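Most newcomers find our protein records easier to grasp once they have seen one. Nothing more is needed to start thinking about how sequence determines fold. Here is such a record, shown just as it appears in the course material:
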Amino acid sequence: MHIDHLKKNRGLFVFSDPGGAKPLLAFIENHKLNDYKVISDRKYDFFTDFQIKVNSFKDEDIDKIFKDFNPDYILTGTSYTSKIELKFISCAKKLNINTYSYIDHYTNYEERFIFDNHYIFPKNIILIDEIAKKIAIKTILSNHSNLIVINNFYHDFLRNWTPKTERENFLENRQINSDEKIIVFAPDPISNVNEKNSFDENDIWNDLADVLKKINSVKLIVIVKFHPNQNKGALIKTINNSNYKNVIFFDQKNSIDLLYHSDIVVGMFSSILVEAKVLRKQTIRHFPPSSFKDPLLALDIGLISSNKKELQKNFLKLL
C-alpha cells in the first residue's frame, strides 16, 4: 500500500491502548504530517517521546470533532480496554469517510471490533507483517475489510531514535551503580483475564526472583516496567513477598531510554520484547508449558525458558 495519499490529506488519529498509540504517533512523526488531529481517552508517559499534541475527548464531542475538523480519513488503533476507536469508525462510516485500523499484535483479532455485541469493521485494516495477515485471513476480518501489510510504524521510529539521556546520567538519576547489570522485567497483565490461566505475571516474577537470587557472579538490578493495564498493587505485593531486594519500580516518562540502557529484557509476550529486539537488546521470554498460544513464536525473539533451570541457564549465557 502506498501511503502518499495519507501523508497529503487531513487525518484524524484515534487510539486508547498503548499498542495502537505508539505506532500512530510514530506514523505522524515519521512522515512529518502537518494536517492532523489526535484523539485519545487516555494519557501515557510515552507521549513525551513524541512532539505531538494528544487531545482528550468526551463521547458527546465526537460529532463536533468530525464537523469542525472534517478529516479526509481516520486511522485508529485497536483496544481491549476501550471502544473509542469503534465509536469513531462508526461515525466516520456514516459520513462516508475512509477508515483505517491498525492492529499491532497477533492475537484476538475479531474481538477488537466488537461493540455492543455487534461488529464494527473499518474499510481497511493495517497489519504489521505477512504472519499477521495469514492469521487475519482465517478470521472474518477478511470478509469485511481490506487487509494491508505495512511494517510497524513505531519500530521504524525506534530504528532512527537516539537516546535523550546518556547512560551515566540515566544510572545516576536512578541511583544505579555503573557496575550493575540492568534487568528490565516487562510483565503482561495476564491476571486481568477472568478465566483461570495456568500461570500469570506473578508466577513469572517468582521464578525470576528465585533464579536471580542464585546468580552471584555479577551485580544485578531489576527494573519493573509495568504494563499500562497492570494491577500494580497486586504485582508489587508479590514482588515484596519474594524478598528480592534489588528492585526499582519504573515510573519515568521516557521508556525508550530504559530499554536502550538495559542489559537484558525479560517478559512473556509483551510488545516491549519486540521493541527490545528492534533496539538490539538481549531478551529472555519465560513461561511454563501450557495451552496458552505463544503469539510471538514466529518472530524468533530472545531465548525461551519454561522452567527455572532453563531460565537460569539463559541468564548465565547472556551475562
